[in-house]
Design a protein that fits this description.
By secondary structure, the chain is of the alpha+beta class. It contains one helix and nine strands; from the N terminus they run αβββββββββ. It has one helix spanning about 1-20, and strands at about 55-60, 65, 70-75, 75-85, 90-95, 95, 105-110, 115-120, 130-134. The longest helix has 19 residues, at about 1-20.
Length: about 130
C-alpha cells in the first residue's frame, strides 16, 4: 500500500509541475496574416546577333567556294559563314574545326586580335579564305 501512495504522490508531483509550467504562447488575435505576394522574375531576353552596322561580316559557302574569299573586319568584328551548298563543309580556322555545316547551317566567330587569319574547308582543302583583322 505504501508503494501505491508513493507512486500516486510522484505522479501528482509530475503532473502538477507540468501543469504549472508557463509557456509564452501568444493569444490568437482573430485576424489573418496576409501572405506576401511573389513577383516572378522575368525570363532573360536573348542577346540579338550583331547586324552589319554592329560589325557582322557574312561569308557564304557556295559552289565549293567561300564568297567573298577575303574579308576585312575590325577588332571584335564577327564573321558569319553560311553554307548554301547541298554538300556539307567543315571550316578549319586557328587550329579549330567546326562541326558539319549542312545546307543553311552557319558558324559565327568573333576576332579579338589584329592579324591575318587563313581558313579552309576540312573536306575540300582547295577551298580557302582569309579574314584580315585591323
Amino acid at each position: 500500500m505504501k508503494h501505491k501512495i508513493l507512486l500516486i504522490l510522484i505522479l501528482v508531483s509530475i503532473f502538477s509541475t507540468i501543469g504549472c509550467t508557463y509557456t509564452n504562447i501568444p493569444e490568437p488575435t482573430g485576424t489573418a496574416t496576409e501572405m506576401p505576394t511573389i513577383t516572378p522574375t522575368p525570363s532573360p531576353i536573348a542577346t540579338p546577333q550583331p547586324t552589319p552596322k554592329d560589325g557582322l561580316t557574312t561569308v557564304t559557302i557556295e559552289g565549293n567556294a567561300f564568297v567573298p574569299e577575303t574579308v576585312t573586319v575590325s577588332i571584335k568584328g564577327v564573321v558569319k559563314w553560311t553554307n548554301m551548298d547541298s554538300t556539307p563543309h567543315k571550316i578549319k580556322i586557328m587550329g579549330m574545326v567546326t562541326d558539319d555545316l549542312g545546307q543553311g547551317d552557319s558558324f559565327i566567330w568573333a576576332f579579338n586580335q589584329k592579324g591575318t587569319y587563313e581558313y579552309s574547308c576540312k573536306y575540300h582543302p582547295d577551298m580557302k579564305g582569309t579574314v584580315i583583322v585591323q
